[in-house]
Design a protein that fits this description.
Layout (H helix, E strand, L loop, with lengths): L4 E7 L3 H12 L4 E4 L15 E2 L12 H8 L7 E3 L5 H12 L3 H28 L11 E5 L2 H18 L4 E4 H7 L9 E5 L3 E2 L2 H14 L3 E3 L4 E7 L2 E7 L2 E10 L5 H7 L6 E11 L9 E4 L4 E6 L2 E10 L8 H14 L8 E12 L5 E4 L6 E5 L5 H15 L20
Helix pairs in contact: 1-7, 1-10, 4-10
Bound molecules: flavin-adenine dinucleotide.
Length: 419
């Protein structure tokens, strides 16, 4: 491979771009990743690290738009729409609203379930076979309820849908949940346990993916901010970055929440918005939960690793506004304090925010562009990018000459949005 040419250029070095790189390398391609920062510095860094086939049902369902609109009045709500709309955000909201019906809910659930289940299987194999040191633990995720109303609603929609998909979900009484997790304060009315879910330490996972990419001969260009493209005859011929121009036969756009910004320079209108979330990482409290938890009323996710402990939450639509929002960090803390005896660890190690790449239908966009003949997209993984990353890598590799993937790529096709 010479300095600027490779078979496949991957734009973005997050968990999705690195997974694509790894599966392509395993299929024999030469690969170069362009990353503006360091590998995994975007949304892949401080997320909660849960691997959740149980999250197959999307947020978009009848009634959700009402919840989102009411949230504009409460800056602390776990789902928050900033009322100062700009054109792209308003268009996104209208697009999302169109998908809040039972037909699309069913279709999105099926598509998400297929890629989540495959990814979960591949992840276990990858961690074992490639010896990825990332605190991968296969112990399930527990939803905890303090309100009977919330539990009933989740049993009706979420658990019933998982039953239909054949994804195991155990309905637990409050006493059983408290016995299972002494870290919880009393007052639990019930739980839903998803034994097939898992967890890992996401920053370590992306670091390990980057290590394997390099070991297999891939190149990761760090500090390479992509600026624009030269196109020629329906193809992308050059990618221009702060570290010079790069040539490739094929280009994979895996820029997470930044995808629409560069997509625009290619005339692609990706129907996506950043869904901002926050996390707090601590040294491990003495009474840390044994399982990954979701405290459902507060929508707080709690993940414990040997090396630390993280609280994560909130879905805020404020466009590309950067930085920490104190109101929302405080709400995250309070949500954890309502549920746990020892909600915070002895030492606060990191306060973090990240942008989830949210598409209007909450189904990732994976596959060939209809507009540019040598471009593929691998983006819009929303709340589930880590959970879906391995099967995304396998799908992209299969589209570029690698072994076939058992996942039907049709529901993910960029063509559904004219991309
Ligand atoms: C609070 C929170 C909790 C979450 N919890 C979970 C969870 O438990 N489980 C789960 O599966 N998912 C979770 N997610 C979602 C998950 O983090 C994302 O879906 C996933 O990280 C997306 O990966 P990505 O590679 O597409 O994007 P990113 O990781 O954001 O990667 C995109 C990369 O592109 C780079 N880039 C952008 N623009 C340019 C440019 N111009 N030039 C070069 N490089 C560029 C960025 O620097 C970045 O590294 C959570 C997200 C948040 C915010």
């Amino acid at each position: 491979m010479d300095a600027t040419n490779s078979d496949i250029l991957i734009l973005g070095g997050g968990v999705v771009g690195l997974s694509c790189a790894l599966y392509l390398l395993k299929a024999g391609a030469s690969v170069r990743v362009l990353e503006q920062g360091t590998p995994g510095c975007g949304s892949s860094h401080g997320n909660c690290g849960t691997i959740t086939p149980s999250h197959a049902p999307p947020l978009a369902m009848p009634g959700m738009i009402g919840v989102a609109l009411r949230s504009m009045l409460t800056a602390e709500a776990p789902l928050y729409l900033n009322p100062r709309f700009d054109g792209p955000r308003l268009r996104w909201l209208l697009g999302f609203a169109r998908h809040c019906n039972w037909g699309d809910f069913q279709r999105a659930t099926m598509a998400r379930s297929a890629i989540l289940s495959r990814s979960r299987l591949l992840l276990g194999e990858l961690v074992r076979d490639d010896k990825l040191d990332c605190e991968f633990t296969e112990e399930g995720v527990l939803y905890v309820y303090r309100s009977s109303k919330k539990r009933a609603a989740d049993e009706h929609h979420h658990a019933a849908m998982l039953d239909r998909l054949g994804i195991e979900v155990q309905r637990l009484h409050g006493d059983d949940v408290e016995a299972m997790e002494p870290a919880l304060k009393p007052g639990v009315v019930g739980g839903l346990f998803h034994p097939g879910d898992a967890r890992l330490r996401p920053d370590r996972y992306v670091a390990e993916l980057a290590r394997r990419v390099r070991e297999l001969g891939g190149v990761i260009e760090t500090g390479a901010r992509i600026e624009n493209f030269t196109t020629d005859n329906g193809r992308i011929s050059q990618v221009h970055s702060s570290r010079g121009a790069f040539l490739a036969d094929r280009v994979v756009l895996a820029l997470g929440a930044w995808s629409p910004l560069l997509g625009k320079t290619l005339g692609l209108r990706l129907p996506m918005q950043p869904g901002k979330g926050y996390s707090l990482t601590y040294s491990r409290p003495a009474r840390a939960p044994k399982h990954a938890l979701v405290l459902r009323e507060a929508a707080v996710c709690v993940t414990t690793w040997d090396s630390g402990y993280r609280l994560g939450s909130t879905m805020e639509f404020s466009g590309y506004a950067e930085g920490l929002n104190r109101t929302r960090i405080d709400a995250l803390r309070r949500g954890a304090a309502n549920g746990l005896h020892e909600p915070e660890g002895p030492q606060l190690l990191e306060e973090w925010w990240g942008w989830r790449p949210m598409s209007v239908d909450e189904v990732p966009i994976i596959g060939p562009s209809t507009r540019w003949s040598n471009l593929l997209l691998a983006t819009a993984h929303g709340m589930l990018g880590v959970s879906m990353s391995t099967a995304t890598g396998e799908l992209i590799a299969s589209m570029l000459g690698g072994p076939a993937s058992p996942v039907d790529a049709t529901p993910f096709a960029p063509a559904r949005f004219g991309l």
